[in-house]
Write a structure and sequence with these properties.
Elements lengths: L7 H6 L4 E3 L19 E3 L2 E8 L2 E2 L14 E5 L5 E8 L5 E9 L17 E10 L5 E4 L3 E10 L6 E10 L6 E7 L18 E6 L5 E8 L5 E4 L2 E3 L5 E4 L3 E10 L6 E10 L4 H5 L4 E7 L2 E2 L9 E6 L5 E8 L5 E9 L5 E10 L5 E4 L4 E9 L6 E10 L3 E5 L2 H9 L5 E5 L3 E3 L12 E5 L9 E5 L6 E4 L7 E5 L4 E4 L1 E4 L3 E6 L5 E3 L2 E3 L6 E4 L6 E3 L2 E3 L16 E3 L19 E2 L2 E3 L2 E2 L8 E3 L3 E2 L2 E3 L2 E3 L13 E3 L5 E3 L2 E3 L10 E3 L15 E4 L2 E3 L8 E2 L6 E4 L2 E2 L12 E2 L7 E5 L6 E4 L5 E4 L2 E4 L2 E6 L9 E5 L4 E6 L2 E8 L9 E8 L2 H6 L13 E6 L2 E6 L7 E4 L9 E4 L8 E5 L1
Parallel strand pairs: 5-11, 13-19, 22-28, 29-30, 30-33, 31-34, 32-35, 33-36, 34-37, 35-38, 36-39, 37-40, 38-41, 39-42, 40-43, 41-44, 42-46, 43-47, 44-48, 45-49, 46-50, 47-51, 48-52, 50-53, 51-54, 52-55, 53-56, 54-57, 55-58, 56-59, 57-60, 59-61
Antiparallel strand pairs: 1-2, 3-4, 3-6, 6-9, 7-8, 7-10, 10-11, 12-14, 14-17, 15-16, 15-18, 18-19, 20-23, 21-22, 23-26, 24-25, 24-27, 27-28, 62-75, 63-66, 64-65, 66-70, 67-68, 68-69, 68-71, 69-70, 70-74, 71-72, 73-74
Length: 883
């Protein structure tokens, strides 16, 4: 078992907050390890404010002393400079503010090294700022990178905060343009590149059937196309060359969408000599039918991965050599000791231009095409690695194709949507349902779910209706679907799960619907909505139901039940549905979540609820209305900046009908929720209509006392504690190292950090933890006997390491003994986001802005719990065992 060896473990834990400075010289000191609190220099900023004139600029994310950035801020077109006010925690530290800019030559063009790499000046306009001094920096169009460097008086090493100030770019001119052949050699442009010169020529050898072209823009938001294909800034784009003149357009469009510059390259590829023609063993084309190449085929690219669907039994390969008469074979490659292909095994001859059928078995296979030039000696090999996918891809880019794919979906299908707007006709013939623009009643299985996702989640596909007053955008009447990365809007309702079970909506957005965002009805159970955004609901509710505008509705109203008189038609059951890690609002015009009667055990946890724009009136004006039983509403953050529009946050209601025998709205658990309600004096929970509503440890940030209403309030309810248990065999539980070790520094006794290990599960207190809501979907994982002691990475370098241990730290006592720290609980790296899966919970650390690192267990008792990159493994998922 690894152990924390010294107080340095805690020093490192403070996520880039400190620098260990050796003040003075070493004369008179022993060579034994010395750790003295006086040698720890506080280097953090306590505040950072940017302004333009009298306007304070908004940093994203909000400034946190523990987070070094990069922060971002946008400024208006007319802003010429900004002011930077940075307050240091320790006035004795040095602060230098500079810009990070591209080095320019005398003509204003970027300087590059011998390899063409643009040179960067990291200390442009550097100013050593005195305490209380405000620095000013000029702002150019595009990105302006600003660095704030802090160091101790006797050291130049320290912390660097970075801010990117962005101003809309109107200039589309390139600052560089170059072409390289397959050997990496630069081709000579004529004339020499100049941003204002639009046309260039270059010459290539016959052997250069492929060149790479790069455009350098002055700003990352500039949109480039090379030879009609989108091109990334500063990256080379491959372009194939025919013999003779090849005209290649290079188009640069500025961020403002107005400025456009049209450059043109004319690259002349030489004709072949007789010897070059005889030795040409390249392919002109290779087409795989039934498989998808990882990259487009290029004449000089020799290695390809080819994805094949789970159910595929064969594919067809069609190849054509660059020179007629070259011979072709296909088989299993044979490698020499250097890894180069030298021959084929089990080879067969193939005919140029004719499809060759390839049978597939197993999960992967490596095969190659051998091309022998007409000289009979020169050979070239093209390798194809066939990899069987876990699913059957169905790629669509039109509404009609999507509707067909949905109506015909099978288990293990993965329907992939190109980034586009999909406006489907709601009809039996087109969509399969009169009241849905997109519809499916097909089901996947637990082992083979049907997946519906955007090809590019950063540019999501948008599914839309044609009126706020009719239909659902998507209606599912099947089980085991996984839907992710898609935006829904433009209809009466966003998504309707109708008798649909075991479905996951992950990372979707419902934005702009006439009434409700998501409806889970008619017996729909065991569904999960997570990491999604629901906003702008209730835009045009019907006259019959003016109150409709909820973010999510779970369950069917009693008047619609099969048992209802006279015309009920829906299954009343809606069991075990989960709503976690979502954001609601602004402009969810009714409650964020409504739980109807008949619903049992709905979990609403770790959500951010912004009630701006709520228009519900009367007693029911709430963020949550609960008519189901055994609902859990916990660890949420609820905002209401205006302080208006809510009569309570959570309302529990009974429902009485002649055909109902049970009481509803009972046993709601409302705990560990954080509220910022603009000073409104309203109860957090209202139990006037039910017998039991459990409340505990709810807080308000607006200095208004927490209150509840109704005789059913039970304030004796205890927030659950948990064991964190691995889901692998054997199942083991997290355990803090006890007794907590001591460590002496000079004459001062300091508590050392204790490791977290996995051990055989027991009733020991060191295996019990409590989740403490830390706002906006994050929690502390605290020990039950001391809530100041929390699980944390051992040091901030976990973001650059494959694995790092977890420790338990006391955010009050440990820090006080080591150094003066203000509000240590604000540290991002101390917080965890809980992501729920069917088989367990992931804990992702907020210290990494992209949340790429998860808590990782072990299969052997006594081993450390660690934090590692997400690997989608069972070792990173845990069961919460309530104690």
């Amino acid at each position: 078992m690894l152990r924390s060896q010294s107080i340095f473990s805690w020093t490192f834990l403070i996520s880039f907050l400190l620098l260990i400075s050796a003040c003075g010289d070493d004369s008179g000191r022993t060579k034994e390890p010395v750790t003295d609190a006086s040698n720890l220099t506080e280097l953090r900023l306590s505040s950072l404010v940017l302004s333009a004139g009298e306007t304070v600029l908004e940093l994203t994310p909000a400034f946190d002393p523990d987070y070094l950035g990069s922060y971002s801020v946008n400024v208006d077109d007319d802003v010429a400079s900004i002011n930077i006010a940075a307050q240091r925690m320790n006035p004795e530290t040095k602060l230098e503010i500079s810009k990070i800019e591209v080095k320019l030559d005398a003509n204003g063009n970027p300087e590059t090294d011998d390899d063409g790499v643009v040179l960067i000046d990291r200390f442009s306009d550097a100013v050593l700022v005195e305490e209380g001094q405000v620095d000013s920096k000029n702002i150019d169009e595009g990105d302006n990178r600003i660095a704030l460097r802090l160091a101790g008086n006797n050291s130049n090493a320290g912390l660097i905060y970075t801010v990117n100030v962005h101003k809309l770019n109107t200039d589309a001119k390139l600052v560089g343009l170059d072409v390289r052949n397959a050997s990496g050699e630069l081709l000579t442009l004529n004339p020499v590149f100049n941003p204002t010169t639009m046309e260039y020529t270059a010459s290539a050898a016959y052997t250069d059937c492929l060149v790479s072209i790069r455009g350098l823009s002055s700003e990352r938001h500039t949109v480039l196309t090379i030879a009609g294909e989108p091109a990334s800034h500063a990256e080379y784009q491959p372009v194939e060359m025919a013999v003779g003149a090849n005209v290649v357009p290079v188009v640069s469009a500025a961020e403002d969408g107005v400025g456009v510059e049209n450059y043109q390259l004319t690259i002349t590829r030489a004709s072949a000599t007789a010897d070059e023609l005889a030795a040409d063993a390249t392919l002109n084309s290779a087409v795989l039918t039934g498989a998808e190449l990882s990259t487009d085929f290029r004449c000089l690219i020799s290695n390809y991965a080819a994805g094949i669907n789970q159910a595929a039994e064969n594919v067809q390969l069609t190849v054509a050599p660059a020179v007629a008469g070259a011979t072709l074979r296909y088989g299993q490659p044979v490698f020499d000791t250097s890894g180069a292909v030298v021959d084929l095994e089990e080879a067969v001859d193939i005919v140029a231009g004719e499809a060759f059928d390839i049978g597939l078995a197993g999960d992967s296979a490596l095969r190659a095409v051998e091309v022998t030039a007409t000289d009979g000696e020169t050979k070239k090999y093209y390798q194809f690695l066939y990899v069987r996918r876990d699913s059957n891809w169905i790629e669509v880019d039109t509404a009609e194709a999507l509707q067909r794919a949905l109506k015909n979906a099978q288990p293990n299908d993965e329907i992939i949507l190109a980034s586009a707007l999909y406006e489907g006709l709601a009809s039996e013939e087109a969509s399969g349902h009169l009241e849905a623009h997109f519809f499916s009643d097909r089901s996947g299985t637990a082992d083979g779910p049907i997946i519906l996702r955007s090809e590019n989640a950063s540019i999501p596909a948008v599914l839309s209706g044609d009126s706020y007053t009719f239909n659902a955008v998507l209606q599912l009447a099947g089980d085991y679907w996984e839907i992710s990365g898609i935006q829904f809007g433009g209809a009466k309702n966003g998504i309707v799960l109708d008798g649909a079970n075991h479905n996951v909506l992950d990372g979707i957005s419902v934005n702009g619907v006439g009434e409700r965002g998501v409806i889970i009805r008619n017996g729909s159970s065991n569904n999960t909505i997570r990491r999604s955004a629901i906003l702008n609901t209730g835009k045009e509710p019907s006259a019959s139901f003016p109150q409709n505008g909820e973010g999510i509705v779970v369950g069917s109203e009693a008047d619609e039940w099969l048992t209802a008189v006279p015309e009920g038609a829906q299954d009343e059951k809606a069991y075990d549905n989960n709503i976690r890690n979502n954001s609601f609002g602004p402009n969810v015009r009714a409650e964020a979540v409504r739980i109807n009667e008949g619903s049992l055990r709905t979990n609403i946890q770790h959500n951010i609820v912004d009630t701006r724009g709520i228009t519900s009136t009367g007693d029911k004006a709430s963020a949550f209305v609960v008519k189901g039983n055994d609902t859990n509403i916990s660890y949420n953050t609820i905002y209401n900046e205006s302080g208006a529009g809510l009569n309570q946050v959570a309302l529990a209601q009974n429902v009485v009908r002649a055909w109902l025998s049970d009481a509803w709205g009972e046993n709601l658990k409302y705990y560990q929720n954080i509220h910022a309600l603009g000073g409104a004096v309203v109860p957090l929970a209202n139990s006037s209509d039910v017998a039991v509503l459990n409340v505990a440890e709810n807080t308000r940030k607006d200095e208004v006392e927490v209150s509840y209403s109704g005789s059913g309030i039970n304030e004796a309810y205890a927030v659950p504690n948990y064991q964190l248990k691995t889901i692998v065999d054997p199942a083991l539980c997290f355990q803090e190292e006890r007794p907590i070790p001591d460590f002496s520094i000079g004459e001062t006794l300091l508590e050392r950090l204790s490791n977290v290990t996995v051990e055989v599960c027991s009733a020991a207190s060191e295996q019990k933890y409590k989740l403490v809501n830390m706002e906006d979907g994050y929690v502390f994982i605290a020990t039950v006997d001391n809530l100041n002691r929390i699980i944390s990475p051992a040091h901030p370098s976990f973001v650059s390491q494959a694995s790092s241990s977890l420790v338990v730290v006391d955010i009050v006592e440990d820090l006080k003994k080591i150094l003066p720290v203000t509000n240590p609980e604000e540290g991002y790296y101390l917080r965890w986001q809980m992501v729920y899966h069917d088989d367990g919970v992931e804990f992702l650390n907020r210290g990494d802005w992209f949340k790429r690192f998860a808590v990782t267990g072990d299969t052997s008792a006594g081993e450390d719990v660690s934090i590692e990159l997400i690997q989608d493994t069972e070792l990173q998922r845990f069961e919460l065992v309530e104690q």
